[in-house]
Amino acid sequence: MRLRRGIAIAVVAGGGAVTTMLVGLVTNAVSDESRWPGWLGWLQEHAWFSFVVLGVTMAGLTALLAGLSETQPPTPPGRPEDGAGPPGAAQVLRSLPRDTAAFTDRAAELERLVGSVRASQERGQGLPVHVIDGMPGVGKTAFAVHAGHLLSERFPDGQLFVNLNGHTPGRTPVQAGEALASLLTAAGVPTQQIPVGDDVGAVTEARAAMWRSRLADKKALLILDNAASYRQLEPLLPGGSGCLVLVTSRKRLVANEEVVMSVEALPPDHAVDLFVRLSGRPSDALGRDVVDELVRLCGCLPLGVSLLAARLRHHPSWTAEDLRGRLVAARDRLGELRAGERAVTATFDLSYRDLAPERQRFFRQLGFFPGTDLDPHVGAALDEVSVVMARRHLEALYDDHLIDEQPGSRYRLHDLLRAYARGLTAEGEGMDHVQAVQRVCTYYLAALAVANGHIVRSGAAVPPVPDDASRVETPVLESRADALSWLETERANVLACVRRANSLALYDLVVRLAAAMAPFLRQAGPWDQAVGLHRTAAEAARHTGDQRGRGDALAELGVVRRFMAAYPQAIEALNDAVTAYEAVDDRRGKAEALNQLGIVWYLTADNEDAARAQTEALALYRELGNRLGQANALADLGMTHRQMSRFDAAVEVQSEALTIYRELGDRYGEANSLRDLGVVHSLMGAYDLAARHHQEAFDIYLELDDRVHQAYALNELGVVRRLTGDVEGARTAHNQAMTHFTELGERFGRATSVRHLGVVDRVTGDATQAIRLLEEALDAYRELGSRGGEAASLSELGVARGIVGERDGAIEAFQRGLEILRDLGDRCGEAEVLNHWGTLLFTSDEPPAARRHFDQALMLARDIRCPLEEARALEGIGRCDWTIDGPGHGVDSLRAAVTVYRRLGVSASVDDIERLLV
Questions:
Q1: Is the peptide bond before 526 cis (omega within 30 degrees of 0)?
Q2: What is the bridge-based pairing of β-strands 130-133 and 50-53?
């Protein structure tokens, strides 16, 4: 979806960091199938039928272009990065935790909250933020979740829950930008479309703007749990008036126009009722006085009451008096704590000491998990037990109220219990912190190896399985969808493990985990997280002297920087990677880094450097016998040749790439090469062959269920149809493509469809409508930083303005378009603009000036063998000579033009010239 122009202008005006963010924000079109960046960016488009290189401005945030090799170079929107992307159905709009069956009363608070919401909705007023504060363990989260379930029917567009980790032991509070990325992903925004960059403030602002836009006119409920400050949560607040936000915090947050609700400890009577209900015993069998004292000893906090009742329920032989005696003893041991802490921590201590020794050990180890929530596989790795046993431990701890259950059979320690578990390691045998982190990191390495087996393209390099992986049970991942779903779920936990390992100087694990996460992060992003990860890995490798590992980290950093359109930084990282690989004679690593360097230079129109890098990479791949690498380098070299208007060379190398892709069974590579060949053949005037290639590519994308690439192929088919006289067929194809792009939120592709539709309107005689569409496309390209798209739009806009008599505006458009094309080195596009300009001058009764433009266009067209522009130039020269020197002059040029037009099948132009000659 398009960002509102006002927002875009305001952001661009605000500074370079955000400007560059918007540059990439939409060049990143995402495949519906899996968000590869493979095709993302498709930095080329043609004006009429010729592709114009898209020069993206520096440091744009998401200029996606995923590469062709294992780090795939950008091809026309096709090439997937290592094969896949995140699951297309991962739009979780119902993410509230399970409501607790033990929720007790809070009738007054609930009535106040529900009444406030109902009154605001009935009056049509904006819903205020409701801040729920209170001491730890008092039940703030349970209250917010329970209220959320009660109110869910009033907010049919979604109910979302985010833990901000404001007071989670061992975890830093979630930054607003990170939380926004999670919310946008949950709301269905493809990850590559989420703004990224180095300026944290600018990224947060851009994500917040996207989030507000996403929830505009929606009725959704958002719970922001465990907030540390109002500053942390403010960017997360929706802008629309129909959304309800519930915030929980231990602090009294100061804000304007919020409803503040303090949740206190339970009234004694309610605490007693909760205890009786959870103990599973009749109230008359407990003794009211004893129960009164029990709930008083734990401060009437729901968490403490629940734990005490669970102890009694699991010990049928105990009496309430037995429990009271144990609790008093525990409180005495914890006497050094503050009153509030002592009340609830005593209940923890009592519950912990009641566990069997093996379960105590398991519970202690949970406190060392660097992530937030975990499943039985992680628990098994932490405690070195089977997954079956870990599941039993987790279920038992849940029954004992020592751990919370999360959606998807996952579990999470309450912050207070996490702190308690971490404080137990000095007791008994204990588990060494470093060893615990090593074990869980080893598990993730083994599981990532399984996941990468599904998402990395055949023939691509994958991080090896750790030597000790045989001792680890990994999840069953039977398909790419399974792997992507698991990766999406575990992303934050793996990154947390990397941070903890780095803080413990476990540098080898940092390097290996970063390499194992690279294929997924390259596809799924957010890329600012990937940048941080690979920087950390490169520094960790430097500590250990691991040059190959450092090269891998720097190469990945360069790839991600390319996705972000931060081209100077990408070149610096990739050059450093080449140096690191050369130090250890790693020829494959060097080849891949060179391949990526060539892609960056291709994108910046440094064509000679791009060709040189791809040629060197190709030679290395051939020495190594790496067929996929050869295909990737050849395909990228072909695109570079096409960009330089070296069409014969482009066909030769792209055809060789196509042969290898077919031998490897790489359908994406095959489709992308077919489509690029179609573009080249269209430029060379072989329209039948071009249409056949585009149709073949479209059929493969259809087979792969890749709607984005289908849309790009439809646009290419539309261009060929228009050039061969099937104007309505072209309109149909471009409209279908635009529908796909609009639904997928792919702004660059949509702008291209709009531009092509403008050309169709111009050809069919509706110049006014053509101008409207072309100006819309021009605005979009400029917002995206697409210089190639801008030049193509300007070229066509100049033609349309000339038709309606806006001569000065037409010349201005031609001048600006020609400047860009010459800067990009697109000689075919330059010839096209010169022909358009010459036509304008001819119709303005300036045939001598027009002939000079046609002469320049003819020279360019013949030099690069671009037959359509050659024919147009010949026709223009003939008409000028006929006008300047009188009828009968220029006939040879006109007849030469007819010959070329006939060969191309452009019958309309042939008819026009023959009428003149008759």
A1: yes
A2: unpaired
Taking the CA atoms of 558, 559, 563 and 567 in sequence, report the sign of the dihedral they define.
positive
The SS3 assignment for 160 reads: strand
The DSSP-derived string for 823-876 is HHT-HHHHHHHHHHHHHHHHHTT-HHHHHHHHHHHHHHHHHHT-HHHHHHHHHH
- Counting as low any pLDDT under 70, the low residues of the chain are 1-93, 100-105, 135-137, 167-171, 191-192, 252-257, 330-344, 346-347, 415-416, 426-431, 457-466, 468-469, 565, 605, 744-745, 784-785
CB atoms within 10 A of CB 568: 12
* Residue with tokens 């930083």, as numbered in its chain: 785
- Write the CB contacts of 467 (distance below 8 Å, at least 6 apart in sequence): none
DSSP 465: P
Q: Is the pTM of this model over 0.70?
A: no
Tokens of 86: 């995140």
Residue type, 790: E
Give me the pLDDT at residue 879, please. 93
pLDDT digits 0-9 by tens, 524-572:
777 788 889 999 999 999 999 999 999 999 999 998 888 776 788 999 9
φ and ψ at residue 162, rounded to 5 degrees:
-130, 125
Cα R_g (the chain), whole angstroms: 33
Residue (of 360, 431, 343, 345) closest to 397 by Cα position = 360
**CA atoms of 477 and 637, how far apart (whole Å):** 36
Residue written as tokens 């370079």? Answer: 16
The per-residue DSSP string of 519-539 comes to: HHHHHH--HHHHHHHHHHHHH
Beta pairing partners, 223: 161, 246
CA distance to 131, 340, 398, 472, per residue, from 409 (Å): 29, 32, 11, 20
Q: CA-based angle 696:700:705, to the nearest 5?
A: 145
What integer pLDDT is reported at residue 93 of this predicted model? 64
Distance CA(561)–CA(550), nearest Å, equals: 16
CB 197 within 8 A of CB 528: yes
CA-to-CA distance for 822 and 122, rounded, in angstroms?
61
Question: How far is residue 67 from each of residues 72, 621, 624, 633, 706, measured CA to CA in Å?
Answer: 2, 16, 20, 10, 17
